[in-house]
Amino acid sequence: MTGAVSYSRERRLVALACRVLAMEGLVETTLGHVSLRVSDTRFLVRARRPAEHGLLYTTPEDIALADLDGNLDPGEPPIALPAELPIHAATLAARPDAAAVVHAHSPAVVACTVADLPLRPIVGAYNIPAMRLALAGIPRYGFAGLIRTPERAAGLLRAAGERPVCLLQGHGLVTRGPSLAAAMLAAIDVHVLARLTVTCWQTQRPLIEVDPDDYRDLPDLGPGYDEQVWRCYAAKAERLPVTPAGGPG
What we know:
Layout: H1 8-23, E1 33-37, E2 42-46, E3 63-67, H2 85-94, E4 100-104, H3 107-114, H4 128-136, E5 140-141, H5 150-160, E6 165-168, E7 172-177, H6 180-202, H7 225-238
Parallel strand pairs: 5-6
Antiparallel strand pairs: 1-2, 1-4, 2-3, 4-7, 6-7
Helix pairs in contact: 1-7, 2-5, 3-6, 4-6, 6-7
């Protein structure tokens, strides 16, 4: 692989994002992936090497370059692309405004889809982005299998519509964003909201939504907020030792 197309910085960022997903409880073991657009027709995505250690120990060597047709770039070493690569290829092809896609198996999100618990704006200043995502509506794709064909990916895109997050019935979630930070924070915020929803539901008490009058007191966090919070998560993940082979240091 030549240096001209190595995308070393971008590979490191995608690997870091995968580690963040694991550290924050959105993925377990080897399931889940993150992608990042690097050109009009190509993107980096978390793949699998023969010696797989799971997302918590993802390194840049686990990140592969693919095209929107689902092909591994000829310059890449042997590596297995995700079975659900169509999630990323279809989303990035259909949404030129999307720079990154996240697919995670959040246990809290799965619990909400299985128990048919809607994600509503039950938090305010605690997590303003999560409240606004819930207030605008978080759609659900009613298919619990693997999204490994263009047809299934098209169904996901129809279900998501213009929303940046879509829940997958009994499966997890998919997010997209204009940056890696935006896609990651959307996934984390929905995971946090789902976790709180499940916790409150277990009390068997009604969930109290934020009073609409309170919305006026919640500020516009501004365009730099995603990057600010992402730096916090990234800094935490960077402190987890990882060997070049992909195992714990």
